[in-house]
Structures are given as structure tokens and as C-alpha cells.
């Protein structure tokens, strides 16, 4: 099946995600056992290594679960995007200096995909303005970059001046300050990896001010937004799906291969937290998972019992004498195995959730009178947040 037009595609995806929500709209930590009877034995048979291998190979993950979840075949089709391939600019050392490997390639691909050489650019939530400088070098006649952090604005402004690029920084909080005057009609609005509400404000402002062209790659859909998802398009407002922050975060859960030691500490942290949860449940007769605040990782070099005393203090819980900490540590390890396997099933749906969120944005822009294209701008290995939305306002006599 070919890629269908956005509103039909949204409708199909929306139904499919609704019908399969029992697999992804779950909080793994809350479950003591695998919550899907038909998957239980298959999941528990997997070794920890097999879980990690499947988790890092999307094709294998889909093949594995499509035997049990027939909807996955259609999900793959609905989640696919064409990749926009442009030619990376050869960059002089003075320009690329200070931008690390994968980030540089990501920026080069983004610049190539956007390929702006004529219009002035508004760079949204610019950081140090690396992207803005590359766009300027690529041929954009002027770049105006907006950024919250004064220090990044100063560094970006200095680099641009030193490199003789026509780029100007504006230090502003886009969630609080009046920034509408930056949305000049003929400027090309560009937002790379602006989180949640930051890119929503960008889109609202662009529409309200009649900006002709925008290109954005959204990320962290939940950040700075209310706990329940606020749909942008009429279609998503009518959806029966109610996405929470937890659901939105699923869209971001690509496996990032952490260095060995970091992964080991993380593993211990999760099983200790679950072990403490088992202890707390028993002492309080509480049936729900209660999170314990994040903490300096040094605590995980100590003993499980020390961690439990610390966690109990955070929860104002007095631990009685004679606790069999070894037993709870073991329960924690077992519960981590359950959690990992539940997460593995949820991960099958992560890209589909992201595509649903992105289509909401596409439909919003279409309804506001834009022609919109959806693609990826780089390989996933450079960044899993590789979706590019490009919108061009239809001319009056369209
Ligand atoms: C993930 S970084 C993206 C930076 C750059 N666009 C890139 O892709 O390399 C997000 C940037 O948004 C900025 N930011 C966060 N909140 C902001 C706000 N309320 N107003 C303006 N900028 C903000 C951050 O300081 C940070 O530099």
C-alpha cells in the first residue's frame, strides 16, 4: 500500500492505535506480571540478551510480534516516511569547528533537506545557532536566531561575527515574551528539535502571522505542555485516544546505546527501585507503584539496603528491623525482567505514536492553508528525531 494522504492516514493510524492500546498504553512499573496472557510464555522465554537485541532492531521486533499482533503489518506501512536526500555542503574547518561528529552530520543533512538559499531565516530555539550559521553559509541571505539562554546567545553572536555571517541573535523566552514581530511573512521559519510547547508556539505564531514557509523537526512532544495531550488539528481533537505524558514519551524511546558502565548502573538502578517498591508495597499494603526521586548515581555503588533506607526516608516510611534485603533485591531483579519485556512490546508502537503526533501537526498546518510534506531528513543513527515537516502557504489564487 502506498503512503496515503495525511487525513486518511491519520484516521487509519488513529483507529489502529486505539485498537491496540492495551499493548502500549500501560505503565510497565505498575505490573508485577506480563499483562497479556497470550504473550506471557513467549516473552518469559526470551533471554535478557535476546530482549536487548530485539529492542535495537526494529525489523526483527516487528517480525517477532507480528505473529501475535496482526495489526503490526499495517502499522509498519502507516509509519513509513520517505527520506529526503540532499547533498551535504563541504564545510570549511572554521565553520564546523566545535560541532561534534553526529551532530554536525545531522545539521548538514537538515540544511541539505531544507536547502534555503533565497529567503531570510528565522531560527527558532537556536542554542548556539550552529544550524543558523550553516544555513547562512549555505546561502540564506539573513538569519535571525531566537534563544532563551543569554550565554548561548552571546556565544552564537560572537561566532557569527567572527565568521562574518549575517546572523543576529535575539534573547527571548518564546513561551512568555512577545515574539510575534519575528514572524515576518517572507522569512522561512526553521525549528530543529524545539521541544513540545516550543514548536507548538512556533507553528501557532507562523500561522497567525501568515508566514509563507516553515520547516520543523519536532521533539520531546510532552515538554512544557499540560499533562493530557492538547490536539492541534480538528481530526486529532476528535480522536478517542487520550495521550498522557507517559504515552508521548514513548515516541522518544529509541534505544540509545549507552556506554557499558552507564548501562550497568542504569540496570541496577531500575531493579533496586523495583525492589524497594516491592518492600514498600508490603509494608504499606499499597498496590500501586510510587516513584522515588532521582538521585546521584553514586548511591548505586553502595548496598541495596543503604538505598532502601535512603528511599524510605524520601517516602517518610520507617523501615522495621529484620528486613530480608536479599529477598527484595531478588524480587527487584525479577520485576525488572517483567518491566523490560513490557517495554519491549510498547516499543513496537513508538514510531507509530510519533507519526500520529506529527500527523496532528501536518493536519493543523493543512487546515491553515499550507501545502505540507513529511519526510525524514537523516538516518536514524544520526538522530532518532529525524522527521521533517515542511509547509508552504498556498498562494491566494490556489
Ligand atoms: C534541544 S535544543 C535545540 C537547539 C538547536 N535548535 C539544535 O537543534 O541544535 C533546544 C533549545 O531551546 C532553548 N529553549 C528552551 N526553552 C526556551 C524558551 N522558553 N524560549 C526560547 N528558547 C528556549 C534551549 O535553551 C535550547 O537551546
UniProtKB/TrEMBL annotation:
Q: Name one GO biological process term.
A: methylation
Question: In the UniProt record, does the keyword Transferase occur?
Answer: yes
Alphabetically sorted, this entry's keywords are:
Methyltransferase, Transferase
- Which InterPro entries does the entry mention? Methyltranfer_dom, SAM-dependent_MTases_sf
Name the domain of life.
Bacteria
Keyword RNA-binding carried by entry = no
Q: Which Pfam families match?
A: Methyltransf_32 (PF13679)
Q: What is this protein called?
A: Methyltransferase
Q: Which organism's genome codes for this protein?
A: Pseudoalteromonas piscicida
Lineage of source species? Bacteria, Pseudomonadati, Pseudomonadota, Gammaproteobacteria, Alteromonadales
